[in-house]
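User: Structure please.
Assistant: Input sequence and predicted structure:
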Amino acid sequence: MNNSISSSFRPAWWLRSPHLQTLWPVFFRQRPQLELQHERVELADGDFIDIASYPRPASPRVLVIHGLEGSVQSHYAQTLLLALHKAGFTSVFMHLRGCSGTPNRHSSSYHSGRTADVAEVLAHLRQTGRPVDAAVGFSLGGNLILKYAGETGATSDLQAVVAVSVPFQLEECAHKLEQGFAKVYGQYLLTKLKAAYQHKFKQRQAPLQVDLRQIRTIFAFDDQITAPLNNFASAEDYYRRSSSAQFLRYIQTPTLIIHALDDPFMYPSTTPSADLLSADVTLELASHGGHVGFVSGNLPWQAEYWLEQRITAWLKEHVLY
């Protein structure tokens, strides 16, 4: 069975470049500032995760997870929460450890494979009478929710999953961000990772002896910081154990993966082949769209954000009201 389908997305004629698709919504999209309900979830290991809810009475609940160094201020965050609200859903935005503006308590950090945190937040919401019906993840968050769905199989308790612009093979993606124009994205993310590390250990002793000035790639950061802080032997070990591609065949939740073949954060060959997909996974491939872009529309002031239309349509089709 071939679960790969061609996407209906067509890029704006003035935004065909994958880089323009990626950067336009970051710099030019107006972002709503919603009145969110903020909550701190205390974790079993003594750390915490901050969540932000945009409630809608008597509505199915959707968990939204951001990408690397993202937050509820990311360009896709509150815009999606608003779109979900209009489509009839309550949304809960999950900040990964340390991404809500306050450093987390432990030396360990969030990372691409830390699905135990997803499970604990879902359990907290379920135990407090707010069970989650579906989940949406962007980039690293997409990797997380696909890995979680594969690990849990038939016991995920989710009716639907959507994952967007996922780095299915983490090591490949790390090296892609060292090449050509993609290096601009890699250096931007690396700068944010370094700043977060410095902010976290400004008031307490860092457990590692590293010279941040000598760390020049995301691979090096993951090898010298992410891996040792989170009990991986190396960057290669971290990537091997955390990449979502190997978990796709075990997913038993209706799952939509939205991916552009021109995503500048990865190679076209990073896209999982059909034999890696379970019968419950639909891989929707677009020729264009960049990384979490997917902007259409006839003119710049008429830009349309196709992702939200596609995500809400899928959820309305698969989540029982």
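The chain has one domain: 4-168+246-318.
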